Amino acid sequence: MQFEKQVCKQVSDQPAYITSEHMLRMQRASMIRYDRTLNEANFLPLFFSYADELANIADSFMKEYSIPQLCHIQAKTDIDVSQYISGLVRSAKSLPMVIKKAPIISSTNRQTLLPMKSSYDLVYHFFADQKLDAVEFAQKLANLYNHNFKVIPTANGAVIIDPSTSKETIIQKSCEYTPYDKSIEIPPLEEVETPEVSTIEKLAEFVHQPKENLVKAVMYSVEGKLVFVNIRGDLEVSEEKLRHYLGLTDSSIPVELAPANLLERHGLVPGFSGLVGVKRASECVLLCDNSVTTVGCGVTGADKQDYHFINFNVERDTKKIAKFIHYADVAENPEKVEGSIVAEISDCRDFYPDMIGLDSKPTKTPLYKVTIRLVDLVAATLGLSRKIRGAYVINVGKDETKLNVTTEELLKYCRPECIVIDNRAKPNFGGKMQLAQMMLFQYVIVVSNKLDAETVSVNDQPVKIVDLGTIFSS
What Gene Ontology molecular-function terms does this entry list (predicted)? Predict the structure, then answer.
């Protein structure tokens, strides 16, 4: 591509507010242009060319399990994807199967390597025929990128981290509990007056019980639907874990505290809510964190202003709505790790698809979601010094025939967007070399009449034009 025809030219000087070295490098090479007002990036041809190379590595990896099938499914959650595909496929005999979702530019609120909201994620839903070890699976994928990536287990699977970046990322670890002793006799459920006792701290003091014996209610609204979470009083709900449980694929879908009208519809009273008096259980998500199984005789809200229940046992006292109650690990258990996430593997165990098994009986089959964060992966693999396969061609001698022959040979091994031909009269050779160094390309090729008609200079070394393929394939 001629230098002048590039949609965006290389620029050494960048705005002072761009302080990330990774972003500066991508800016100077015209991979991206950062928009400070939106806190988003504009993505340019060279970015997509390099991102495609990284995506192809992921494709090749997934082909070891099953050839990825490109689909666009109108789904807001991974649960929708699970149900849709299982409705089409039906039988486990068709497994394993990999459904690929093409990446699109979107905004995200998650932690990222580059200080901006833009994301470009490549997603696979892997409908497996057997359980996988998420950490081992992630390690195999990480190894293919020939980078010093690190795999760390999480509550929902594993993440691939680039530890070389000077960033700190918070991940959620799984929580394990020992259930209460079921041999202990539990007194009957009893309603007690707790005037103006609407917080866990006040309740623990009022009933003279540690927070570990209390069951706390946290009510959320997700697209107008109540998500009613019950968790042990000494713990907090992790929004990341909750999002995973709900299968929310779009980080822009808000998980908000439930408004008063939604609470009223389900018979819940703020500060005094509990499972015993909930209404319309079939119309909401009733979720108990696994920590609730440790509370054999506890205290919870009575869904009545200024009242709580004591001697509460979730298994005994919620039999009428038991079929609507689900248990999952949604408690905060953060761990700080050095580096940035470039990919994640999630075990979708809370919504495995229903299929007909090999024995012709209904069964649930494993589902894993593989998310390649291509913006972060591009920045991480480029780092602060790596070059990509491409060439900046400087025509010094104005030998158009020799330049055309060189370009034709390069196009056999490089994409057009990875070849920049600087055939301008100005600036001088030194100025062109400065731009060439900013391009991140592995090779600077000089076409001049100082060498014979069949030879060019590649990184200051004479190379026959017909041998350029040898360099690019090495």
Answer: aminoacyl-tRNA deacylase activity
Structure tokens at 385: 């010094």
15 C-beta neighbours (distance < 10 Å), count = 10
- Residue 230: per-residue pLDDT: 98
Bridge partners of 229, per DSSP, are 218, 287
> Do 42 and 112 lie in a common domain?
yes
Q: Where are the alpha helices (DSSP H) in 163-280?
A: 200-207, 239-246, 260-265
280 touches 266 (CB < 8 A): yes
Measured CA to CA, the distance from residue 183 to residue 11 in angstroms comes to 73
Shared domain check, 355 and 287: no
Residue 82 CB-density burial (10 A; 0-12 exposed, 13-18 middle, 19+ buried) = buried
Residue 80 structure tokens: 């929708």
Task: Report the CATH number that the domain containing residue 407 is assigned in CATH.
Answer: 3.40.50.800
Please report the pLDDT score of residue 14 as a whole number. Answer: 82
Q: Rounded to an integer, what distance in angstroms lies between the CA atom of residue 9 and that of residue 299?
A: 66
From CA 188, how far away is CA 204, in angstroms rounded? 20
What span, in angstroms and rounded, lies between the C-alpha atoms of 21 and 38? 20
SS3 label, residue 42: strand
Measured N-to-C along each axis, helices 45-63 and 134-144 cross at an angle, to the nearest 10 degrees, of: 130
Range of the domain at 24: 3-174+335-381
Is residue 120 domain-resident? yes
Cα 336 versus chain centre, distance = 17
What's this model's pTM, rounded to 2 decimal places? 0.90
Q: How far apart are CA 423 and CA 426, in angstroms?
A: 9
User: What are the tens digits of pLDDT across the range 132-176?
Assistant: 999 999 999 999 998 899 999 999 999 999 998 888 999 999 999
Helices (H), 162-295: 200-207, 239-246, 260-265
Gyration radius of the chain's alpha carbons: 29
Residue 259 lies in a domain: yes
- Which pairs with CB-CB distance under 8 Å and at least 24 residues apart come from 255-263? 255/220, 255/221, 255/222, 255/227, 256/220, 256/221, 256/222, 257/219, 257/220, 257/221, 258/219, 258/220, 258/221, 258/226, 258/227, 259/221, 262/219, 262/221, 262/224, 262/226, 263/219, 263/226
Can you list the residues of the chain whose pLDDT is less than 70?
1, 3-5, 7, 9, 250
Indicate if 215 and 274 belong to the same structural domain.
yes
Residue in the structure block whose two tokens are 């061609």: 393
What was the pLDDT predicted at 167?
87
